[in-house]
Please model this.
Amino acid sequence: MISHSPEQAAIASELERQLTAYEDGLRELLQRRWDPELYRELSDRFDGMQMQATLLPKLAASWTELLITRVDLTHALWALSSPSRVNGKVVAYHARHKVLIEEVRRKCREYIAKGERVSA
Model:
């Protein structure tokens, strides 16, 4: 059976890079007034990352939790009466979302390390 670890390592490396860009954009979105264009960009980026994540089976559970926290965070943001203010619910959902981003990032690094061992 052929190992797909080098290919998965490459996907994981790109996903890790995309997660960092997504997290930076999300932080920017939360720090300034509501920006529909930035929100759309982040949504598109997340959709692309989701396609990559499906190619990395070890991410399935963590990615599902990340997706749920993203939905929760999005709903909390949309529910704000004043989009320029972040409330406790948004802060809490963002904190949980960040924990899961880091968990997915850690699992990506495991794929990367495994791929490097296989290709060495």
